[in-house]
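Dear support,

I submitted the protein below through the web form. The confirmation email said the job was done, but the results page showed an empty box. After a refresh the structure appeared. I'm attaching both so you can tell me whether what I see now is the final result or a partial one.
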Amino acid sequence: AAGDGGGAEAGGGSGSREAVERLVREHPVVVFMKGSPAQPLCGFSNAVVQILRLHGVEDYRAHDVLQDPDLRQGIKNYSNWPTIPQVYLNGEFVGGCDILLQMHQNGDLVEELKKLGIRSALLDAEKDQEKK
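What the results page shows now:
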């Protein structure tokens, strides 16, 4: 990286606004969390993974902020939100665990996923219940 003429200010660092912007736009569903979906390292990150799983959202990008302190601070600066996890849908910051849980409970998450072309598995689960 030496000699490229730019430092972190030029968008090179993982915590720079440009780098974070690229990450939140790389996929329709992006989660910044502690740990990985297979092994969340905090209860809130685990809750976000479980909520997505309930809706059948398996295809999303997860970034472990514990692996990258620059990214951990960069994402907080980017969203102006002090905590991890953070969930982005279509490049837009949705919120953390509490907000995702609220959206799950009031049905908003099903609608937001629909906008991304993702059909919530809960819709199919409700249909199964109606058949019984």
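Response: this is the final, complete result; the empty box was a page-load delay. The chain has one domain: 17-127.
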